[in-house]
# Entry
Amino acid sequence: MPSESGRHDSSLGPPWPAIVAMSGLPFAGKSTLARALTERLGATLIEVDRLVEGREGLPEGPIPDRLWFAAYRRAESLVRAELAAGRRVVYDGVNFRWVQREKLRRLARDFGQRMLIVHVTTPLAANLARQQANRTHPTRPSVDRETFEMVRDRFEPPRPGEWAVSYDGSEPVDAWLARVGAMLAEPVAGGETSR
# Structure
């Protein structure tokens, strides 16, 4: 569940935006990076995977769409509550469509804040290997092949005009955080995607 520290790590440069939204394929490493961001930024972590109602442990099969939709609605409600309390949020979800990210941007704007997308671009082979390992030793909800392929095929990377940074997993997280933190005083010209 969310924490309430709200501290800013000054070694990361200027303060990060109010919402840092993860985006990427299932098993890309978003949750690992989200936890590191949460700790370093003193933010509240909101993990969609953990908000699926009625889930006890890890279910045997895929989670039905209706439960995912309910989890996303609950996550958005938690984001609103955290922003209202003046706290920064790291939002851990797939966010593979522009419209999903736009909902979060509107929430940020409602509070006079901004949102940054962290697009996790781990190579597809690594995602598939992690998915296979999760079938043997589950550490998170399973994603069936059909759903994974749908997300992969319909994935909408951040567009020009969306404020985004990328992480491909090749750089140590601390080095990436320090480098990216130093770039965040203002969005790049026109709010375009930065790497």
